[in-house]
Amino acid sequence: MLSLFRNPIVQAILLSEIFLQIGIWVRNFSVLLYVVEMTNGDALAVSLVSVAEFVPIFVFSFIGGTFADRWRPKRTMVWCDTLSAVSVFAVLLTMIFGSWKAVFFATMFSAILSQFSMPSGLKLFKIHVPEDQIQAGMSIYQTVFALFMVFGPILGTFVYQHFGIQIAIAVMGISFLMSAAALLWRLPGHDPGGEGAGATVLQDMGAGIRYMLSKKVLTLLGACFFAAGLSLGLIQPLGVFLITERLGLTQDNLQWLMTVYGVGMILGGGLTMAFAKAVPPQRLLAFGLFFDALGIGLSGISTVWWLTLGAQFLSGLVLPCIQIGINTMILQNTENQYIGRVNGILNPLFTGAMVVTMSLAGLLKKISSLVSMYEGAALLMIVALVCIVPLYRMPVVAKNEE
After folding, report:
1. What CA–CA distance (Å, rounded) separates 388 from 212?
2. Which CATH class is domain 201-390?
3. b/e for 332-362, b at 16 or more Cβ within 10 A?
4. Which of 293, 143, 148 is CA-nearest to residue 228?
5. Where does the sequence pass through the membrane (predicted)?
6. Terminus of the chain with fewer CB atoms < 10 Å: N or C?
7. Residue 263: burial class (beta carbons within 10 Å; 0-12, 13-18, 19+)
8. How far apart are the C-alpha atoms of 93 and 90, rounded to whole Å?
9. Where in the chain is the domain with CATH 1.20.1250.20?
10. CATH level 3 topology of 2-131+152-186
11. Helices 281-301 and 370-387 meet at what angle, rounded to 10?
12. Which of 217, 247, 101 is closest to 165 using CA atoms?
């Protein structure tokens, strides 16, 4: 593990990711709270914040992944972070001298650029991190995400409430610049090129789709992604009803469910990091899916406060197993020149499925019940588990052809 932390690629990506997460969480919550304040809580305006965050994933994820495969990963990441910072400072000037509505542009533009930057980071992992350390590296990476899932909303809310939107936007811009500086400082000068020479973008996109469909591992992971997205989207908006309907408590107790879930994520990331070398990623993924289904099912049927808290903690604890298992399997079973496109196909599958069931959750709850919603989500998580059963004993088959 110490040798992994000494790897300059890992150091660069982690340091860059910390600065990016600061910028992203300050952006998400500052913009949300600012729009609520400026529009007196107008539902349409608030929903546009989510649109600005999620639409780029559908529209640009595959496009960004294709260009990430064509371009040099270090240069792509540095330019994306720099352009994000420039756009944020431009929005700040627009707000000072023009309209406050420019905050929507800041959110959308940086979200678009992240669709080019993120697969480039995965590609650097694939190229520079030894095969036997990829899962441990992913464990550290996901632990950083887990920490910000807990503390990011607190940070974003604190910056906005104490310093206002203009300082919050300045913090965003500085964070993106610091991310670019970390990459320039720690990444080696050698930056392997992409594989796009001689082919058009559309040809590369078609090759990416054909590559994924030809790989049984990736196809089954796509089905797993889709089922897991349906499951999580179904219960995402319903946590407050566990508190008010199943437990008979006031809705402000929802914060304790979220806190316990977040603490579970952090501990799960740490434990997964410790056992990363001992457990194959497909078994890690299967373990996470099974116990997440158990946690979701228990949450739905519980009418006891401590049991609900325990179920939420269990779900949070095994979520890193799912994330790390999937990302490791993608990296280990995808050739270098296809990393971006495979990531660009799988991400919208998960997010799209999640958004579909999130949008239907309210209607489905009206015509069924909260318990049936949670048990249905648990069943979908079992479906995701069934999708990867054929992979349980598989070897790593991808070759690094770079």
Report:
1. 16
2. mainly alpha
3. bbbbbbbbbbbbbbbbbbbbbbbbebbeebe
4. 293
5. 12-36, 42-64, 76-97, 103-125, 137-159, 165-185, 217-244, 256-275, 284-307, 313-332, 344-364, 370-392
6. C
7. middle
8. 5
9. 201-390
10. Growth Hormone; Chain: A; (1.20.1250)
11. 170
12. 101
The tens digit of pLDDT for each residue in 70-80 reads 888 888 999 99
pLDDT digits (tens, 9 = 90+) for 152-206: 888 988 999 999 988 999 999 999 999 999 988 877 766 666 555 567 888 889 9
Q: Cβ distance 354 to 232 under 8 Å?
A: yes
Residue the block writes with tokens 């469909």: 213
Please state the length of the chain.
Answer: 402
Provide the CA 298 distance to its chain's centre, in angstroms.
Answer: 25
Q: Which amino acid is at 10?
A: V
Residue 225 host element (H or E)? helix 216-235
Q: Which residues contact 210 (CB under 8 A, 6 or more apart)?
A: none
* pLDDT tens sequence across 309-344: 999 999 999 998 998 888 888 888 898 889 999 989
Distance CA 37, CA 58 (A): 28
Secondary structure of 268-334 in HEC code, one letter for each residue: HHHHHHHCCCCCCHHHHHHHHHHHHHHHHHHHHHCCCHHHHHHHHHHHHHHHHHHHHHHHHHHHHCC
